[in-house]
């Protein structure tokens, strides 16, 4: 007989906010999650299935098409896209479609979105090795309502998926009123749901978890234009790709990689995911980049390869890897140690604790 489990997954619930608001109360202990690598799409598979980017076959959402990796010349014009016209086009398209599908006009053929989201499809799924039904509706309130009904119906495995904190966090940051109010609502409704679940299932386990927090976006960093001046246009001797926080370089010659590496290693707000960390985080494939860098907290790439300017549009970002309270996620359980837990260990720890 499977042990009953009720999981509330609040995307982008920051550790700092949970502490400030007092959390779920005495019976629960909160652990700060030391951030894993990349964005939500990778982190969901890591936390709930124990799968790394190597396992799932993608690292961040967008990649160059594989056929183009070994043919950098073809990409030459594609990545030289940091221009005003492209920015205008992007702004126009976003207004029109309300989508943030960052591919520049005419460049779609070179990119593919390989990132998949674990909770996209409806119905059943597994979290921590257990089969659960999703409560995943348009709004957070409707998702909680659905979960309450599932408990009443006698469901023994439930995962509530909440996107609200991610949405408002990007918009106003984790200190913004909208974010704080949403976090309060998530705590209140989670308390209510967990009480209800425990009434029905005294032997059940309740878990509140997030994948990351939300860092304030303060300072734009341009590496693309300096790299063009120093190493020539991308597509000749090397390729470069960066989204908001991650930078990836490919080159055919070791010499070029060394040159670029020693330039980038001198930039203070940037650090390299070195070989031992690539092993640790499971990001070893060549197609993920010969060199991979991530920005320190508070910085963002502006412009980035897609020619998208973040200024004015985004107050918060995630994907930062330093374990500051604001950018770290939470694991709230009745069995936790209270100590910081590495994102890499969350899956095994929870699966072992909740057992069969
Ligand atoms: Zn997320
Ligand atoms: Zn997000």
The total beta strand count reads 18
Q: Bin the strand percentage.
A: 15-25%
Number of helical segments with 4 or more residues = 13
Largest β-sheet summary: 8 strands, mixed
List the keywords.
356 residues; alpha/beta; Alkaline Phosphatase, subunit A; 2 domains; eight-stranded mixed beta sheet; 13 helices; 18 strands; binds zinc ion
Task: Offer a quick outline of the entry.
This protein has helices spanning about 15-20, 40-50, 55, 65-70, 75-80, 85-95, 140-155, 165-170, 175-200, 225-230, 255-265, 275-280, 345-355, and strands at about 5-10, 30-35, 60-65, 110-115, 125, 130-135, 155-160, 205-210, 215, 220, 240, 245-250, 270, 290-295, 300, 315, 330-335, 340. With about 350 residues, it is an alpha/beta fold.
Question: Care to describe what's here?
Answer:
With about 350 residues, the chain is α/β, with parallel strands linked by helices. The strands form five sheets. It has an eight-stranded mixed beta sheet with strand order 5-6-7-1-8-17-2-18, sandwiched between helices. A four-stranded antiparallel beta sheet has the order 11-12-14-13, with helices on one face. It has two domains: about 5-55 and about 115-215 and about 320-355, Alkaline Phosphatase, subunit A (3-Layer(aba) Sandwich); about 60-115 and about 220-315, no CATH class. It starts with a strand and ends with a helix. It is built from 13 helices and 18 strands. Bound molecules: zinc ion (2 copies). One zinc ion (ZN) binds near residues 11, 12, 40, 211 and 212. One zinc ion binds next to helix 8.
């Amino acid at each position: 007989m499977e042990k009953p489990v009720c999981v509330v997954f609040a995307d982008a619930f920051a550790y700092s906010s949970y502490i400030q608001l007092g959390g779920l109360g005495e019976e629960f202990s909160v652990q700060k999650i030391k951030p894993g690598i990349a964005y939500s799409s990778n982190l969901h598979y890591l936390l709930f299935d124990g799968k790394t980017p190597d396992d799932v076959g993608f690292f961040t959402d967008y990649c160059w098409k594989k056929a183009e990796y070994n043919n950098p010349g073809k990409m030459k014009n594609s990545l030289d896209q940091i221009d005003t016209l492209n920015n205008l086009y992007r702004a126009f398209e976003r207004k029109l479609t309300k989508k943030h599908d960052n591919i520049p006009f005419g460049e779609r053929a070179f990119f593919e979105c390989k990132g998949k989201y674990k909770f996209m499809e409806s119905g059943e799924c597994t979290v921590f090795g257990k089969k659960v039904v999703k409560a995943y509706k348009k709004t957070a309130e409707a998702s909680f309502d659905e979960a309450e009904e599932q408990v009443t119906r006698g469901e023994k495995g439930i995962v509530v998926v909440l996107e609200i904190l991610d949405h408002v966090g990007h918009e106003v940051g984790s200190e913004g009123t909208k974010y704080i109010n949403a976090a309060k609502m998530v705590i209140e409704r989670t308390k209510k749901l967990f009480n209800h679940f425990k009434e029905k299932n005294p032997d059940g386990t309740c878990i509140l978890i997030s994948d990351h927090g939300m860092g304030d976006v303060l300072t734009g960093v341009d590496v693309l234009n300096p790299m063009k001046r120093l190493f020539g246009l991308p597509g000749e001797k090397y390729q470069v790709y960066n989204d908001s926080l991650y930078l990836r370089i490919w080159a055919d010659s070791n010499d070029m990689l060394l040159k670029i590496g020693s330039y980038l290693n001198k930039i203070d707000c940037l650090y390299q995911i070195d070989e031992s960390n690539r092993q640790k985080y499971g990001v070893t494939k060549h197609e993920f980049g010969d060199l991979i860098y991530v920005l320190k907290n508070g910085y963002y790439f502006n412009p980035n390869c897609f020619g998208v300017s973040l200024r004015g549009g985004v107050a918060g970002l995630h994907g930062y890897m330093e374990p500051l309270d604001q950018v770290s996620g939470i694991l709230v359980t009745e069995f936790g140690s209270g100590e910081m837990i590495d994102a890499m260990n969350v899956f095994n720890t929870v699966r072992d604790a909740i057992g069969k």
